[in-house]
Design brief:
By secondary structure, the protein is an alpha/beta fold. The chain contains twelve helices and twelve strands. It is 35% helix and 14% strand.
């Protein structure tokens, strides 16, 4: 008699090869129509499942876990996992995994796209061209600021932060960083980066790039007080998680000229971003696309699938975020 395959729920549309891999090992309930599950619908769909492959838009909390008694593993298709109550998973013996590493370079590229786009006012001037406002060349027309030779401050010097710093070498930038812990000297040398306090970084940097995970400790890490410590000519880049920046305070700073501009890929309460951003010319807006290249998103989905299959086989998944669950 054939052994029952574990049943898994995939909450959002994924690539065909990801589903093909999962179906070799599991009975799969997919959502290729990509209609997001409401909380009650998610609980009902998950009730008889052994595994869950989810996105950062899916909240996995104690209430959901209580309604999924067979659940053994949650595989998040993201490097961040603030959508998952990890202690609750550990308490119920549920392994939780993420997808680090495979998205570092693509996310670093997007941070640079925001930096360059904001510095040179790309989205603003494109709108003006499309509106027919460009009537010819002028010497002082739509002046931006230089990125080369400027000072780059990176808040959060993990893998992505280091990838951002390495790209600054080609622009001959001075690189400062702040991190919970100072990184190894050889990594500082490779990134040509100097460790400073957060206040020093804010005061000295022409570009401040945020690359910290969202947590209660980093909630509103950048608020009105921190924005006032930045140069009036400085540009803030948030390509990490909404909530790290107090968006209302940022809107006020952009309106008042406290800082020159901002480039944002993430927002508080996304996708319902603060509507006041939409009326500002000195902010570049992107819809949470930091890792959104075809190759990277495929790699993320496959890594999540491998994590899930390994967990359901009783193995240690490659990217287990709650190792205490196995004790």
């Amino acid at each position: 008699m054939n052994e029952r395959k574990p049943r898994v729920l995939v909450t959002r549309e994924v690539f065909d090869e990801t589903l093909d891999y999962l179906r070799l090992h599991c009975e799969v309930i997919d959502n290729q129509k990509d209609q997001p599950y409401a909380p009650e619908a998610l609980a009902q769909a998950l009730a008889g499942c052994d595994g869950l492959m989810c996105a950062l838009t899916d909240r996995v909390d104690a209430a959901l876990l209580a309604r999924a008694p067979r659940l053994k593993a949650v595989a998040n298709i993201a490097v961040g996992y603030n959508n998952i109550d990890v202690p609750a998973c550990t308490a119920r013996g549920v392994m939780a995994t993420n997808t680090p590493g495979v998205l570092d370079d693509s996310t670093a590229d997007l941070a640079w796209a925001l930096m360059l786009g904001t510095a040179r006012r790309i989205t603003e001037v494109e709108r003006r061209i499309r509106a027919g406002e460009w009537t010819g060349w002028r010497l002082k027309q739509w002046l931006g600021v230089d990125v080369h030779h400027a000072t780059l401050g990176i808040v959060g010097m993990g893998r992505i932060g280091q990838a951002i710093a390495r790209r600054a070498l080609g622009f001959e930038m001075k690189v400062l960083y702040h991190n919970r812990k100072r990184i190894a000297p050889e990594l500082e040398s490779k990134c040509n980066a100097a460790y400073v306090t957060l206040d020093e970084l804010l005061a000295q940097s022409d570009f401040v790039v945020l690359q910290v995970p969202y947590s209660p400790e980093t909630h509103h890490l950048i608020g009105a007080a921190q924005l006032k410590k930045m140069k009036p000519s400085a540009i803030l880049i948030n390509s990490t998680r909404g909530g790290v920046v107090d968006d209302s305070a940022l809107v006020a700073a952009l309106k008042q000229g406290t800082i020159r501009g901002a480039g944002l890929d993430v927002y508080e309460n996304e996708p319902k971003l603060n509507p006041e951003f939409l009326g500002l010319d000195n902010v570049v807006l992107a819809p949470h696309i930091g890792s959104s290249t075809e190759a990277t998103r495929k790699a993320m989905a496959m890594l999540a699938a491998r994590n899930l299959v390994a967990a359901l086989k009783g193995e240690v998944p490659p990217n287990l975020v709650n190792p205490d669950v196995r004790r």
